Amino acid sequence: ANLITNAATRRARDAAGTDATRVTPHQSTPRHVHGRRRTMSDAEVECQPCDPAPETQELPSSAAAGPGPITDADMEKMPSVCIVIGMAGSGKTSLMQRINAYQHTKGEVPYIVNLDPAVGKLPYEANIDIQDTVNYKEVMKEYNLGPNGGILTAANLFATRFDQVVGLCERRAPDIDHVFVDTPGQIEIFTWSASGAIVTESFASTFPTCVLFVVDTPRAQNPQAFMSNMLQAVSILYKTRLPMVVVFNKIDVVRHEQMLEWMDDFEKFHEVVDQDKSFASDLSRSLSLVLDEFYNTLRRAGVSAMSGEGMEELFDAIGRCRKDYLAEYWPELRKRKETLKAEDEKRRADALEKMRRDLKSGGERVVLDMERLKVNEAVLAADEPAAPGSELD
Question: CB of 249 within 8 A of CB of 95?
Answer without folding.
Answer: yes
